[in-house]
Amino acid sequence: MDINPELIQRAQMLLTLDHSLSQVKEILLRDGYPEDEVIELIEATEEVLNYFSPPLFDEDKIAIDIRHVNKKIDNTGSPDILVDRNSGKVELLTPHLQETWRVANEIRKSIRFQYR
Which residue of 15, 43, 55, 100 sits 20 to 30 Å from the alpha carbon of 27, by its own alpha carbon? Predict the structure, then answer.
C-alpha cells in the first residue's frame, strides 16, 4: 500500500517533537488520515525503531565492537557487547553471532579473576 507522503511528514514531525508512537497514532487519526494507512505506518515505524534503536550505554558501560567476517567494516557505532563497569554484567547485543559468544566468555573469565 502506498502511504500518503503528507501523512509520513506529519508523523515525522510529531516524532521529532518527542510524541510517543501511540500519541502520534491518535493525533493522525484525529487529523482525519485513513486508519489503514496510519496503522500501517505506525507498525512499520515501531518495527524499524525496535530493530535499529541504538544500544544505551554511558560512562558506566564499556561497549565492545567485534570485527565479524560478515559485518560491514563501515558499520560504526554498533557494539556487540556491553560490559557494566560497576557490576561486571556482560550483555550481548548480537547473540546470534558465534564470535560474540566467544568474546563474551573470555570477558567473563577475566572479570571473574578481577572480582576474586
Answer: 55
CB distance 21 to 28 below 8 Å: no
Show me where the domains of the chain are located.
Answer: 5-52, 61-115
Average pLDDT across the chain, whole number: 79
**Which residue spans within 1-116 are E strands per DSSP?**
61-64, 81-84, 90-92
Q: pLDDT (tens digit, 9 = 90+) per residue, 51-96?
A: 554 555 677 888 888 776 655 554 455 788 888 888 888 999 888 8
CB atoms within 10 A of CB 66: 16
Residue 83's beta-bridge partner residues? Answer: 62, 90
The Cα 42–Cα 8 span in angstroms is 10
